[in-house]
């Protein structure tokens, strides 16, 4: 039944599905691990039980999310050897070591301290447990470092040489490969997006419980911390997005043209198209709502600066404009919404209504998934905007796929869809159930106890009649 399908398209859909599903979990765990680190540091510094209660509340959610992220990532990586074996053969000498470094540094670091973090809160000293939490949080950031280095190299390849057999091999310096031109911008933009994603989720959970009980101390504390994060980080993220866009304009101009919907060149200043319906066949944006010369002002910081359009790009090298155009606007819309709710929370603080302004709480609940929507839309913009290249300017996607028949790819794609929605759907449902339970309403006193002694040196209980 799948003979009429295109194997290349199915392979791309399979990778897009699995990586989109996977990206949801790291986008949450990177920020949540750092949030747990802040909670435990606040607990150790102040001794207040509210921070300990929140730590335990979010630790269970972190454990489940982390596990699902690891499993979905392993499944995704297997596709390099099945559906994209040509890419693996050609680029393996460059990307293989980078992905191995991720395992040797980040994964081993996380695995080494995760058990202490999850199960050692009453078994080791508080400082050692806090160190374990810090190491797990650091590991998530190191993992993002290496994975984004690999992905960035595919967008802006540098430091490579092409061997006689056509493979991409490292040049004289690995630093040029790791710190390729787009990597610093992509890393900061993505990690900041993960922090914002976590802030919106934590804020939504806090707001949900405030709508039911405004006096819940745990809900008040988590909502306040999340809104501080949104208010402070959302403007920074918009600035980082602008810098990332300027870098993309330099190295991947066709992607920017597709994002902006510029089919034609504009020698005297390009308009900023807010909305419209791109028509790639007619090479125009229908029903365009635009601001004259604003695109040139944003991208070149000069309203009259010329901007090239897709008319300067061969048709077979143009990215799919319709997809890139709309996903970019979805990402920007989510960013503006997060900026707005952060600003709204500052107004509420000044008015003393942060915990009683129900309209703010309802909005925060509605925007709980906004971070996930933004990171997925941004990922689609980045990856689809790179097409038709898998390694920009060097290796096209059509040349990188494995010689598989469509039925084989379609069967595995259907299996992934069924298994993912069943297994991970159950996991997400359970996480939502945990979030639906309110944190402790009052601040409980946390006993200051030392680590539980290990077996073999724990003093035996005194026998009746015997001197203790």
TrEMBL record:
Keywords: Cell membrane, Electron transport, Heme, Iron, Membrane, Metal-binding, Transmembrane, Transmembrane helix, Transport. The chain crosses the membrane at residues 15-36, 57-78, 98-121, 128-148, 192-211, 223-240, 323-347, 359-380, 413-432. It is a multi-pass membrane protein. It is found in: Cell inner membrane; Cell membrane. InterPro entries: Cyt-d_ubiquinol_oxidase_su_1. Residues 442-468 are annotated as: Disordered. It comes from the Bacteria. Pfam families: Cyt_bd_oxida_I. Its main location: membrane. PANTHER family: CYTOCHROME BD MENAQUINOL OXIDASE SUBUNIT I-RELATED (PTHR30365:SF14), CYTOCHROME D UBIQUINOL OXIDASE (PTHR30365). Belongs to the cytochrome ubiquinol oxidase subunit 1 family. This is Cytochrome ubiquinol oxidase subunit I. It comes from Steroidobacter gossypii.
């Amino acid at each position: 039944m799948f003979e009429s399908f295109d194997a290349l398209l199915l392979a791309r859909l399979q990778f897009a599905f699995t990586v989109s599903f996977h990206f949801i979990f790291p986008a949450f765990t990177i920020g949540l691990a750092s949030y747990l680190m802040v909670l435990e540091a606040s607990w150790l510094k102040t001794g207040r039980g509210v921070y300990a209660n929140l730590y335990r509340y979010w630790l269970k959610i972190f454990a489940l999310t982390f596990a699902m992220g690891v499993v979905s990532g392993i499944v995704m990586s297997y596709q390099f050897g099945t559906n994209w074996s040509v890419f693996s053969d050609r680029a393996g000498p460059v990307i293989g070591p980078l992905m191995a470094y991720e395992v040797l540094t980040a994964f081993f670091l996380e695995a080494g301290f995760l058990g202490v973090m999850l199960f050692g809160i009453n078994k080791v000293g508080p400082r050692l447990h806090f160190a374990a939490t810090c190491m797990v949080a650091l590991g998530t950031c190191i993992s993002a470092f290496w994975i984004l280095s690999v992905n960035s190299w595919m967008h802006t390849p540098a430091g490579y040489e092409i061997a006689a057999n056509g493979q991409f091999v490292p040049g004289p310096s690995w630093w040029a490969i790791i710190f390729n031109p787009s990597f610093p911008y992509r890393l900061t933009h993505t990690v900041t997006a993960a922090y914002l994603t976590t802030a919106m989720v934590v804020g939504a959970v806090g707001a949900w419980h405030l709508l039911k009980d405004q006096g819940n101390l745990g809900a008040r504390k988590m909502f306040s911390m999340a809104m501080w994060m949104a208010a402070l980080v959302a403007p920074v993220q918009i600035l980082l997005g602008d810098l990332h866009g300027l870098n993309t304009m330099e190295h991947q101009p066709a992607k920017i043209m597709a994002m902006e919907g510029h089919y034609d060149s504009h020698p005297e200043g390009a308009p900023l198209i807010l909305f419209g319906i791109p028509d790639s066949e007619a090479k125009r944006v229908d029903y365009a709502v635009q601001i004259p010369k604003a695109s040139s002002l944003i991208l070149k910081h000069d309203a009259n600066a010329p901007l090239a359009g897709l008319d300067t790009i061969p048709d077979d090298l143009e990215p799919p404009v319709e997809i890139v155009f709309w996903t970019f606007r979805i990402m920007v819309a989510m960013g503006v919404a997060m900026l707005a709710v952060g600003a709204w929370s500052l107004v509420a603080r000044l008015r003393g209504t942060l915990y009683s302004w129900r309209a703010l709480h309802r909005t925060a609940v509605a925007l709980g998934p906004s971070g996930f929507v933004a990171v997925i839309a941004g990922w689609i913009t980045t990856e689809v905007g790179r097409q038709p290249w898998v390694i920009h300017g060097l290796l096209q996607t059509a040349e990188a796929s494995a010689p598989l028949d469509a039925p084989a790819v379609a069967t595995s794609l259907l299996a992934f869809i069924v298994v993912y929605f069943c297994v991970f759907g159950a996991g997400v449902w359970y996480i939502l159930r945990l979030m639906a339970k309110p944190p402790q309403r009052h601040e409980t006193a946390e006993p200051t106890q030392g680590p539980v002694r290990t077996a073999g040196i724990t003093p035996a209980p005194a026998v009746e009649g015997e001197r203790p």
